[in-house]
Amino acid sequence: MNSEKVNYLKGDDETNLDKNIEFIVATDLHYISPKADVDGELSEICEAKGDLKQMKYASEIIDAFISEVIKYKPSGGLIICGDLTYNGEMVSHIDLMTKLQKILDKGINIYVIPGNHDIKNYNAYKYKAAQKIPIKSVSPKMFKEIYFNCGFKSALYRDKYSISYISQVNSELWLLMLDTNFYQENNWKNPVAIKGSINESTYEWLEQHLKEAKEKNIKVIAVTHHSLVDHNDLLNKGYTIENNQRLVELYAKYNIILNLSGHLHIQHIKPGYSKKIKNKKIYDIATSSLLVCRNQYATLTYEPKKSIYYKTKVLNVSRWAFERGILDNNLLHFNYYSYNYAYSQTYKKIYYELLRRNLSEYEAKMMSSTLSKLNPAFFSGTVVEIYRIIEVSDNYKVWSLVSDIFYHKYIDSIMKERKYDHNTLKLSLREDGESFGSVIWNKAKG
Questions:
Q1: Which of 20, 128, 162, 315 could in theory staple to 179 by disulfide, Cβ–Cβ 3.0 to 4.6 A?
Q2: What span, in angstroms and rounded, lies between the C-alpha atoms of 126 and 33?
Q3: Residue (of 332, 358, 359, 330) closest to 344 by Cα position
């Protein structure tokens, strides 16, 4: 038996079984401590690479987010789907936990799992005077110690062979926080693994407790860092859990209908289909990175015996800055800044590559403009709002000139999203007939 039963929380759940339970979901915070980025040079490094993460304001974004969590005060708590730090720096983990403590101090639960960047990362550096100086990352044990009060302390069950655990929200709802990271073989030659997998012992632990949940008619919401299914034709290798169909079938067998994930940085909803049980679907919701335009998080409402409702919300950084008398114009007009940052980062990266392919400056500008509009929409799950404008534009048609390059395939993969809204999903929990797990609400258009 590879499970440790830790704590059985009864609380006042017997009197609150009919009340809605609300969570906030966020992922890929990629926080870096000022102790590791002494002069703020990392933002310039990321900008030079065309990275969409807004590292210049990472600390302010996270502070604004923490403020909104405290104002919202979700009854279920805050769920973070991994990649808490930039590259697993110990000082970043410690400093981030200091920030998160403000939420705990208000009586709000936090549940975290690590991402592929968070543990045993050999890319953990201190950035100072144009130098990268290796600094200490964290071990799995240290990760659990730092975030002990963020799910581990109150866990109902913990897996001995990973950082996976199960938390009891009340007597009819569990959270499965499943560690899918492959950090064991990280080394100086291979500093950080992108891929995700689940070891055999963890599968045994998982099935043991999912069976228990089903027998007791307990609903389970699952959380992973890596995706349960392929969300994009091009962005799946290293992003989707290896041998993912095995996990899909296990979820289907034990009536799990929702998995929350991160890692991709894009906002995207897609079902996985069981091959063994007819009409069984499990929805995977990849929440976009908090540091990437539109700087979103999500609310998740569990309505007992009725529904689970997921909806994204754009972080209001401008209000946070105004309330604190901050005079930085970018923060005071943050939505505008955030979009322009994503647009310009995409434009610079594509424009110069197109020029190297002997396209004219005019053609390169037209084509770069198209992708620069699509990319922020793709990452925020809002392609449905602009695809028709893009589809009929002359700029989009010019892309046929270079149909052989990666970015043309990338655009095609984005335009496939034209009929789907990826920011809302409501699933039925009713067990009459075949309604359990069916979609009640999704603002699909087209």
A1: 162
A2: 9
A3: 330
The answer to the question of residue 331 being in a domain is no
Distance CA 189, CA 171 (A): 47
Q: What pTM did the predictor assign?
A: 0.95
**Same domain for 193 and 75:** yes
Calpha distance 439→426 (Å, rounded): 6
pLDDT for 10: 37
Element (H, E) at 126: strand 125-128
Which alpha helices (DSSP H) does 262-360 contain, by range?
317-323, 329-332, 334-355
How many distinct helices (H) and strands (E) make up the chain?
Answer: 13, 17
Q: How many domains does the chain have?
A: 2
CATH number of the CATH domain containing 59: 3.60.21.10
Residues 136 and 176 in one domain: yes
- Find the domain containing 358 and state its range: 338-419
Output the pLDDT for position 444.
54
Contact criterion met (CB below 8 Å) for 394 and 367:
no
Same domain, 201 and 342: no
Q: Are residues 295 and 192 in the same domain?
A: yes
Low-confidence ranges of the chain (pLDDT < 70): 1-16, 433, 443-446
- The distance from CA 134 to its chain's CA centroid, rounded to whole angstroms, is 27
The C-alpha atoms of residue 66 and residue 214 are separated, in whole angstroms, by 35
DSSP output for 26-61:
E----B--TTTBTTS-HHHHHHHHT--S-GGGHHHH
| Whether residue 387 sits in one domain with residue 263 | no
- DSSP structural state of residue 333: T
